[in-house]
Amino acid sequence: MKEESRPRPVFDPGIPDDDRAVLAAAPERLVAACMPEPPRPRLRPATVAARLVWIPAFAFFYGVLPGGWLRVFFLASLDGDELVGGAARWGRLPVAAMMLTPALQVLLLLLGQTEAAAVLAAVSFTAWAAGALRHVREPAAARAAREHHGSYLLPGDFDRPAARLLIRAQRAIDAVLGSQTHGAGLLDDVNNAVVLPRQEWAIAAALAEHTRLRRERRAQQPERLSPPVRAMLEPQDRALRLSVRSVTRRIEALEAYARRADEADDAYHESLVLQDLPEQNARYRELLANTVGDEMAGAEIRGMAEDAHRAERALRERVTSALRAGHELRLPAE
């Protein structure tokens, strides 16, 4: 399937916003719903052994020894600004801790506070070990992709007919959400930002099911079945065709809504042009007064005013038409 004919991933609106943002930012982690669920990460003995060695060493170097000073001095000796700046990637608190903790330990030892120095070293070691453990957990994107598997749909979940229909729906939704009238709040009555993603998910879920049923039918190899058996399968095929027609009508309703929003955009553009009409009328009135008779100038100005009223009425009618089309959209649950 060519890139331009591939629908974008579709997410269930029920997925929490944070997880949806993580999934959208890491598409390489997503697994099609038609594929098995991603397994939980399994630790190999070699990985566990390596972590048992390097995590304590890491915590001891940065939490107890003057590792922060050594790191900064080493990077500075390389005369690399980017490397020196990399010392602060962990954040201000870890950098301050790894720079100040060894100095405080030395100060406590010089003051004879051996126990306090030991407590400080133990606390610092524990904190750095805990910080290291946070970075060896399952990545947030991998966890979200596993936990929400089946609640997002990818191009691999759709065959060619389903992908074509989904692309039509997505283009219509993008047209509405990208319209000037939506951006200006003229279509807010429809609550597009909530309704349209639900429409997209409902359509995508139905099309993914159509794809699964068609793939199952092809796997049955109908050409090898006897006429009586094929006749028994005909009601299933008829139900699938009816469902496809129903989804197609839903998509056509979205496309009609997008067309009306586009028409409302034209009227909205006209309204923006008409905002400057009073000032322009004054200039044209002066122009006419200087070139033709007063009676003819008055007729021209009255014609301009009538044109402005007609354009305003057209804007209201087109926006009303777009709103009506939006309200006609219905989700299956509704």
Overall description:
The chain has 13 helices and two strands, in the order βαααααααβαααααα. The chain has two domains: 45-137, no CATH class; 158-328, no CATH class. It has 334 residues and is an all-alpha fold. It has helices at 17-25, 45-63, 67-77, 81-86, 92-110, 114-134, 140-147, 160-177, 180-183, 192-219, 227-275, 277-291, 294-328, and strands at 10-11, 152-153. The longest helix is centred in the C-terminal third of the chain and has 49 residues, at 227-275. Helix 2 crosses helix 6, helix 11 (227-275) packs antiparallel against helix 13 and helix 12 (277-291) runs antiparallel to helix 13. The relative contact order is 0.10.
Task: Please outline the helices and strands.
Layout (H helix, E strand, L loop, with lengths): L9 E2 L5 H9 L19 H19 L3 H11 L3 H6 L5 H19 L3 H21 L5 H8 L4 E2 L6 H18 L2 H4 L8 H28 L7 H49 L1 H15 L2 H35 L6
Antiparallel strand pairs: 1-2
Descriptive labels:
13 helices, 2 strands, single chain, mainly alpha, two-stranded antiparallel sheet
